[in-house]
Amino acid sequence: MLKTFLLIFFSVALFAQTKIESAKKLFEEKKFAEAKKILTPIKEESADYDKAQYYLGRIAFEEKLYDAATDYFEQAVEANDKVADYHSWLGNTYGVIAQNANVIKQGMLAPKMKKEWEKAISLNPQELECRTSLIQYYLQAPSFMGGSIEKAKEVANQILKIKPAEGHRQLGNIYLANKKSGEAEGEFKEMVKVDPSYISALINFYVKEKKYDQAFALLEVALTSNPNDMLAIYQLGRASAITGLKLERGEECLKKYLTYKPQVNEPSLAGANMRLAQIYEKKGKKAEAKKLFETALKEDSSLKEAKEGLERLSK
Known about the structure:
single chain; mainly alpha; Serine Threonine Protein Phosphatase 5, Tetratricopeptide repeat; 77% helix
């Protein structure tokens, strides 16, 4: 009898686990409707209820249904408050809603998002994303709501101990927010010394500061060391598109990048088409630019600069 009971128990548990794994896979494949069909029937008494609510929240977030996402994440936290990701995403969703809310609602949401990020960090001491969010909170919130440059630096120094390059990047961003360009540059240089893959952040700094010679010099050094460094190739093209300098070299680089298949987290081909369009526009090749802006938007309709470029050329 006991053996039969255990067999049934473990079979039910395995079936529930399989359902969650199936839904997770569908979510990752962006098959949201199919994932919801699996997740929605999972009842509150199920051991996987918290996971179901979490993935329903993730789907709602992807669909930009932020109020619904909040409800799902709150239910996931209520069912199981020991999972860092649940608190992290709940805090993130509060943050997104706050961006477009009135001042009163922002004041109500601010302590809630801060509380969730802090809870996620307490559950996962290696958490980086929530610490980054807290830095932005401390930089943007007024002092009466806890905003503080010093508190932002404290969190950045915590990140420094976990992932040094990212810590230097965050300290650089804090100095920039405080209009201390020299200190920011020092942190960004340290960041690249620790991890050369962060070079794009230093390049972006030089471009924003209009120190174009330094930006292009860094990129050419990287390409001298590795002529097939596709990130550096893209970044040089991007810098050219933004600044209007070295247009021939920028065009050459972006055309080369467009023959490449980007990996996960690398710049998209849509972005490369948009940047090449910007170069053509600056060179007066309006027909070619318009066509590439259209191509970029077909590949990624969210590209704001591509929309703006197409509007300019359609007048």
